[in-house]
Amino acid sequence: MLGKKLVTAQKRGETRALCLGLGMVACSMMMYFFIGITIVPFYTKSVWTTETVCKVLKANINDKVLCPNTKGSEDKAIFPYPCLQVCVNLTASGQEVMLYETEDTLERNPKCSYIPGKSENSKEVKARIEKIASNFKKHQTFPCYYDPGGTQTNVILRRLYPLKGLLFALLWPTLMFTGGCLIIVLVKISQYVSVLSAWQ
């Protein structure tokens, strides 16, 4: 009687472990799919792939401009802010080009190098942009990214999705997938050993 209870408990434990392993594998597949349709296209479409050194030539703050907070947004998302324009000397080619914070900055407003987040306090936005301009003037040489193919003549300060960020995003589903497969393999080995012991 006790042996039957032990066998039943063992089978229940194996079933739960097998479901856990399959669930981990399924979740990792869903995470891979989500990363594949969100982050990977942005990474592959970015043409600013080569890092070089940029030297600031000028950093001017012009009059306030209007810019939508998001692409295709309504009028209520449009807010004014001082337009910071940073021109740099590209070391790779020696050209004078416009600097943008990220790829998204160029798409949202090609006139300005930096787009602040939507804020009700215009003084804070102005102070932040003035601080960024002073930092550019203070640290005139810094790494930046340019398009080696020449389709984009401007440069960006940082990539939205660099290679390290993509690998870090793929790390967690990979660990979950590996753990799920390991659990399934261990359960199958346990079942095989149990059947072999019973046969002997």
TrEMBL record:
One of its GO terms (molecular function) is calcium-activated potassium channel activity. InterPro entries: K_chnl_Ca-activ_BK_bsu (IPR003930). It comes from the Eukaryota. Its main location: membrane. The chain crosses the membrane at residues 20-43, 166-187. GO terms for cellular component: voltage-gated potassium channel complex. It holds the Pfam family CaKB. It is found in: Membrane. Keywords: Glycoprotein, Ion channel, Ion transport, Membrane, Transmembrane, Transmembrane helix, Transport. PROSITE patterns: PROKAR_LIPOPROTEIN (PS51257). GO terms for biological process: detection of calcium ion. It is a multi-pass membrane protein. Belongs to the KCNMB (TC 8.A.14.1) family. KCNMB1 subfamily. PANTHER family: CALCIUM-ACTIVATED POTASSIUM CHANNEL SUBUNIT BETA, CALCIUM-ACTIVATED POTASSIUM CHANNEL SUBUNIT BETA-1. This is KCMB1 protein.
